[in-house]
Structures are given as structure tokens and as C-alpha cells.
Amino acid sequence: MASYKGQSGAVLQPGNQINRLSGYNDEGVFGLPGVEAFEIVGYVKVSNVAADKASYKSFNITVPSPDRRSGDRVRDDRTSLVVQASAARPAYVYGASIAIGQDVPTVAADRAGFPAAPVTADLGATSTELLLLGPDNSGAPLGVPATQLNGLAAASSSITAASSAFAQGAADTTTGNLPFWSSVTSTIAAGDAADSMMYKVVADTTFKVYNVNAITNTSVSGDGVYISADDSTAGRAGYILCRVNYLRPAANVSWNDIQGFIDFASQLGGNDE
After folding, report:
1. CB 21 within 8 A of CB 247
2. Quick one: which of 45, 39, 44 has its CA closest to 25?
3. Is 248:38 a contact under the CB 8 Å cutoff?
4. Is residue 95 classed exposed, middle or buried when 0-12, 13-18 and 19+ CB atoms within 10 A define those classes?
5. Nearest residue to 233 (alpha-carbon basis) of 121, 124, 126
6. Where are the alpha helices (DSSP H) in 49-195?
7. For 96-107, how does the pLDDT look when each residue is reduced to its tens digit (9 = 90+)?
8. Which of 76, 123, 178, 260 is the most buried (most CB within 10 A)?
């Protein structure tokens, strides 16, 4: 594989964005002057059967390469979803979403003639358990505490198993919805801000998917997930889909931002006049 300089996407001016931002390249857009906005989309492929489920309850998220031909691609898939941040330029996570992939078209009759359809499968699981998308804490989830103090509700999303499965098409948006203030009590108590805070990180932060018993869990407590033997034999897989949205302060002002507007003698002599 040829070498490639990764994580070097540009931060676009709004009028230059015509496609979905490349989370693979950490491409951003100036959502507001001085504010960079980012979106990363990835997936987890689940192909194990029930006998092995205990080994499949904590998952790294693949961020797929824009290069489609795996045999000669320049850029390989990323094996983890990472929010870029530093102490000088923190990241403020304001959105997360999780879903179970479902074939498109969703109606079997409409897929007639598609040689690879269907490709997706339901995930077997223990009823009432959750799949939780959120920031990683040394291999364990941070969960969403019952008492919100730091904005984890804005950086997490979850779905709940029903009838022993996470069904295709099951989905959820951010646990706390968008982190905007909408009401307060007369005393403006701490609880008023429970779902009104972004989640701030000051270093590169990995997001993962965890199978847990409750959204507040801070350990991987679920029984594991799997696909059916029939789906496995047919070559299908379950796909957990993930999206994370965050903001960063723009890089500091620099000479390049202003030099073209300052009147000074050029290299060839003379000034702007």
C-alpha cells in the first residue's frame, strides 16, 4: 500500500462544501466564523454466531476509506473513530447517533435483481440490554450518569434490545438531544443544565460501542451480540452504524489571514498602487 498523509483534511468555507464532510480525513467546515465543525461516520460489522457472543460486547468503530478497491487502495480503513482535540484547541461534542443497518430498499421485493441482497441482518441479544455509543475510558464506557455534570448526554446514543434482538432499522439520536438551554427552574439548579452541555475533551478521544445493561453503566456488562446461524451461512452480517458531531475553535489568526490586504513593497518593488 502506498503511503498517505492521513488526518489532513481542510477546513472548508461554507460555500465550498458540496458533499458530506470526510470524517476519514478529519475534514471540517467553518459552521460559524471562528468555529470548525466536524462529522465522523463509521460502522461495526458483526458476523459471529450465538456461541461466541460473550466475546462480542465491546467494539472499535471502523471509519471506512474513501477508496473503494481494497486491493490497491492508497488509504486503508481506519480501525477506530477518534475525535481530534488538544488542550489549546479542545473539541466540544454535541451529537451522537447509533443505528442497526438495514438493506436499501428495505422491502425484499424491491431488491429483486440485486446480486448481493440482502446483506444486513438483525443482531441477536438479551432483551432490555443496550448498545451504547460513547467516549472510551480505557476500554470501558463512561455511561450517561443519572446526575449530569459534564455533558456526556450530548456525546452518547443508545438503542435497546427487544424480543431478543436489535432489529435492522433500530436507531436513536443523541441521548440529550441538542445541548441547548430551553428552560430553567426559579433557582436555576444544576439539573437545569443536565442535557444542555456539550462534552468537552482536551485530547484525542476514541469513541466505541458497548453492550451494557443500563445507560449509566461504566463497565461492559451485557451478554454480547450475534447474528443467526442462517444469516451467517448466507454470508450476511449485522452492521452497527455510528455518527459523532463536534466543534473546535478555529486555529489562531495568522499572517496568511491578513497579508494580502496590507500595503507593503512587493518583491518586485512598488506598493499596491
Report:
1. no
2. 39
3. yes
4. buried
5. 121
6. none
7. 999 999 987 666
8. 123
Angle at 38 between CA 36 and CA 40, to 5 degrees: 170
Residue 138: CB atoms within 10 Å? 4
Q: How far apart are CA 152 and CA 221, in angstroms?
A: 19
Query: For residue 187, what is its C-alpha cell?
Result: 433557582
Cβ(176)–Cβ(95) below 8 Å: no
Radius of gyration of the chain (CA): 22
Are the beta carbons of 124 and 211 closer than 8 angstroms?
A: no
E strand segments, 3-162:
11-12, 28-32, 35-46, 58-60, 81-83, 91-100, 123-124, 130-137, 140-141, 157-160
Least confident of 70-84, 112-126, 180-194: 180-194
pLDDT digits (tens, 9 = 90+) for 24-75: 778 787 878 888 899 999 999 999 999 999 999 999 999 998 887 777 777 8
Q: Which contacts of 259-262 are long-range, i.e. CB under 8 A and separated by 24 or more positions?
A: none
> Cell numbers at residue 10, please?
481542510
Residue type, 224: G
Cα–Cα distances (Å) from 177 to 132, 151, 174, 181, in that order, read: 15, 11, 5, 11
Judged by DSSP in three states, 184 sits in coil
Judge contact between 40 and 244, C-beta under 8 A.
yes
pTM of the model: 0.86
**Do you find a cis peptide bond into 90, omega within 30 degrees of 0?**
no
